[in-house]
Amino acid sequence: MGSPGWAGAGADSPRVAWARRVVRWLPAVLLVGGVVFDLLMPMHYTASPFLSAASLVAAPLFSLRGTAAVAATAAVVSVLLAAWHSGNDRALSVTEIVTVCTVALLALAINRVVRRNFRQLATVRVVAEAAQRAVLPTPPSRIGSLRIAARYVAAQTDARIGGDLFAVQESPHGVRAIIGDVRGKGLEAVEAVAVVIGAFREAAEQERTLEGLVDRLERALDREGDRRVGLDQFEGFTTAVLAEIGDGSGGLRLINRGHPPPLLLLPTGQVRELSPEADALPLGMRDVAAWRDTVEELPFPAGAALLLLTDGVTEARDASGRFYEPARRLSGRRFASPDALLDALIADVMRHTEGQRADDMALLALRRAGAPGMVAVRRGQRAADERAG
Predict the structure, then answer these.
(1) Residue 261: is its pLDDT beyond 70?
(2) Cα separation of 40 and 56, whole Å?
(3) Which long-range contacts (CB under 8 A, 24 or more apart) does 181-187 make?
(4) Using one digit for the tens of pLDDT, what is the confidence trace for 340-377?
(5) Could you give the residue ranges of the DSSP H alpha helices within the chain?
(6) Distance (Å, rounded) from C-alpha 99 to C-alpha 109?
(7) What is the DSSP code string of 126-178?
């Protein structure tokens, strides 16, 4: 794909980025403030708390060299201030210098510990991301006449493993796609994701109908639940939307099992919410109720895009508690590619929530090539090239 399909929490909000820049200037502010305080205040007041704080603040923010520079500056400033006040209380001056130097050494030790922990965390994040990519690989950017893009955006910056899932599979029966959200978090959710994705990839090749594909997913979750009896509880309930796009008919078939409805973005800029005709329970809940899945068949014209998403998008709230409405926010807009669509949607959700989201977001966009407008543009360009030739 044109851009990566994975992200942490996305880019920091402007407020967070601004706060980080301000915090990094704090040691310098403390050093300068300490000097001004010492020179302006009466004799009995000291700048040592400011100088000591500068070293401690630098420890988790800067590298070892940067922390050492701040610590050395604090020590030198304390000596210069003591010399400036020469002839006054020498014992107090020596005590202040020793205090600042001791805290400076402590800040260097803290920096080493923090940096070691950061390196260990980075290693864990790399391993977790590799595991997540293995479980949930990025789909191909193109299958036949379809252009495809996918994104997974974790709610927390350091998180890489979650319960949202997506997959696209080319099959003898057309291109089949799934997006879902497993109940739970952490490793148990990832195990359920692996079960659903593994079953989907196998069944998408073998099952002639979308109903049969859903039944295979149900059986896979049932088997996993039976295997875990007496070991640990397996809560593999998964909301999901399954889509099938025919090779030549231009038709779209959907089954929705308790998941947020997908959106159909037409070349005109109109957005249709593809809500199911009847509600259905998530996958993995056949013990509660059983019914026949109903496939909804819809046209999928050239230039249209199918947007599949999880509730991390639809349940994102702004500061006043209003939910994000993707159909309304995308209405009237046109996007050059599925990647551009997903990037714009993620950026809009980030603005809506000011970067403060509580749930992961998974998004999958499939666009049928050959929009009439684009065909006309290409023909016009070819005619212009021929005239120029």
Answers:
(1) yes
(2) 24
(3) 181/238, 181/239, 181/240, 181/259, 181/310, 181/311, 181/362, 182/236, 182/237, 182/238, 183/235, 183/236, 183/237, 183/238, 183/282, 184/235, 186/161, 187/161
(4) 999 999 999 999 988 777 788 899 999 998 754 433 33
(5) 14-24, 26-40, 48-61, 64-84, 90-135, 186-206, 210-227, 311-314, 326-330, 338-353, 372-388
(6) 16
(7) HHHHHHHHHHSPPPPSEETTEEEEEEEE-SSTT----SEEEEEEEETTEEEEE
